[in-house]
Amino acid sequence: KNxxxxxxQSLIILExxxxxxxCNYTVxxxxxxxWYKQDTGRGPVSLTIMTFSENTKSxxxxxxxxxxxxxxxxxxxxxxxxxxxxxYICVVRHAGGGNKLTFGTGTQLKVEL
Amino acid sequence: xxxxxxxxKFRILKIGQSMTLQCTQDMNHNYMYWYRQDxxxxxxxxxxxxxxxxxxxxxxxxxxxxxRSTTEDFPLRLELAAPSQTSVYFxxxxxLGQRTSTRGNTIYFGEGSWLTVV
Lengths: 113, 118
Prior knowledge:
heterodimer; A: mainly beta; six-stranded mixed sheet; five-stranded antiparallel sheet; 11 strands; globular; B: mainly beta; four-stranded antiparallel sheet; 0% helix
């Protein structure tokens, strides 16, 4: 069964600290993996897209990694800010026809003073 | 640059009522989607469309209908609302496969529509 599992389910950190969110998937065949940020009451917004051949991709203070062999991805947030408080969703696209996506349930991050 | 626009933002329906969630995008995307997001669950695909005049079922299509008469618009219809349809609904679009695609296949989401059926 094609699944995307994220951990931890929720996380609280102090402003300025770093954190790492995990995503494990069983989707096969694999096309790409995306991380989205979803602020409370808003739609998801894309942070990164990683294909099979990419190991690391950065977007400002966000760095995503992908190990296609172990089917694991991580999202590292550096020097966290209050505005980073959101749900972070890992999404895996299936290879082949169409645009089938499997969404993780997200990690709820709260950054506190 | 509006992107994906959904209306209404909030709606309360009585069991058995009907309503339409509107969605429009101004990016000339070929693909459009409707997802629902329930608490503690990942987004589930209801219906999608690969272009005007073409629609197809997603994972959870029961109780919903869609149409795609133009590239821009992709309304979602609930015919007989049920409490199980209480959820947050997201419309989305992307330009997968188009020659004019410049951003890979990033999916752009609307702001969401909160629907409660009582």
